[in-house]
Amino acid sequence: MPDHEILLDVRGLKMHFPIRTGFFSKAKNFIYAVDGVDFQVRKGETLGLVGESGCGKSTTARAIAQLYKPTAGEVYLNNLDLTKANGQELLAARKNMQMVFQDPYASLNPRMTAGDIIAEPIRIFKKNGLMEASKDEIDDRVEQLMEKVGLSRFFKNRYPHEFSGGQRQRIGIARALALNPELILCDEPVSALDVSIQSQILNLFRDLQDEFGLTYLFIAHDLSVIKYISTRVAVMYLGLIVEIADAGDLYKNPLHPYTEALLSAAPIPDPKIEAKRHRIILTGDVPSPDKQRPGCNFYDRCPKHMDICKKVRPALKETEPGHQVSCFLYHKPE
């Protein structure tokens, strides 16, 4: 795709956590939470990242945001490699990249009012000389953002415990919008909410994207949520992306055996269609991420595995325009 369309470019991202037996001991092994992830996010789109719990989705988002220092790889935001950026460069880059967290209560400071929470990014940038804003301008900005996300401006002096879960997540979204970012990393932002509130927050995300031209990396394990919100979808399994395609194409024509199994597990609200569906039941448990495998990570559970799959890791390659898959069923090993 043309370079001017790419906002976020992730190349070979790895995040390995050391396993230590004692406080001062050296790492004897690692948890390979993310083990070589490559993808790009275009300006104005929503890339959905989906997979089972523990596959490395949230770790990927935190490594992109540099909340975790990646073990290896490159993360380019507007052609700036965040992994090599110094403190001031990284702070300036955060103006264009913000994050909405999964737990709307744990991500808010309980000792700060809603207004102070939303204003905090602006005050930090003002303190570091990266923007100018008077107290009245900050107050006006906070009130505008609260109204924009569906909260009354008269609630700005309330504390997080005085809000419901959905309202707290709206505060988190308003905080993410405070600096007018281009990219928002959404780490399962609706999974902790009731179903009725989930739909409200998802519609809010879509409305804000249309109004401000936002770009989302949207993480979820709920396939219906991903289908509703995403332009493209990346499927992740055990620290690796196994398939990327346009949302409609992936749901109609899944190629990777894991994607097929994942989609077959999602219920369909029509009982007649649901009764006729063939459900793929995977055998075995998800392998532990404390071992690196020479071949495909899905080999042990794959109903279509071949001998080569155990020895060689398949690369993520394009099988048709816009559809990439990591599987030897569709391309030969090099």
From TrEMBL:
<protein>
    <submittedName>
        <fullName>Oligopeptide transporter subunit ATP-binding component of ABC superfamily</fullName>
    </submittedName>
</protein>
<dbReference type="GO" id="GO:0055085">
    <property type="term" value="P:transmembrane transport"/>
</dbReference>
<dbReference type="GO" id="GO:0016887">
    <property type="term" value="F:ATP hydrolysis activity"/>
</dbReference>
<dbReference type="Pfam" id="PF00005">
    <property type="entry name" value="ABC_tran"/>
</dbReference>
<dbReference type="InterPro" id="IPR027417">
    <property type="entry name" value="P-loop_NTPase"/>
</dbReference>
<keyword id="KW-0813">Transport</keyword>
<dbReference type="InterPro" id="IPR013563">
    <property type="entry name" value="Oligopep_ABC_C"/>
</dbReference>
<dbReference type="GO" id="GO:0015833">
    <property type="term" value="P:peptide transport"/>
</dbReference>
<dbReference type="InterPro" id="IPR050319">
    <property type="entry name" value="ABC_transp_ATP-bind"/>
</dbReference>
<comment type="similarity">
    <text>Belongs to the ABC transporter superfamily.</text>
</comment>
<dbReference type="GO" id="GO:0005524">
    <property type="term" value="F:ATP binding"/>
</dbReference>
<dbReference type="InterPro" id="IPR003593">
    <property type="entry name" value="AAA+_ATPase"/>
</dbReference>
<dbReference type="Pfam" id="PF08352">
    <property type="entry name" value="oligo_HPY"/>
</dbReference>
<dbReference type="InterPro" id="IPR017871">
    <property type="entry name" value="ABC_transporter-like_CS"/>
</dbReference>
<keyword id="KW-0067">ATP-binding</keyword>
<keyword id="KW-0547">Nucleotide-binding</keyword>
<dbReference type="InterPro" id="IPR003439">
    <property type="entry name" value="ABC_transporter-like_ATP-bd"/>
</dbReference>
<feature type="domain" description="ABC transporter">
    <location>
        <begin position="19"/>
        <end position="263"/>
    </location>
</feature>
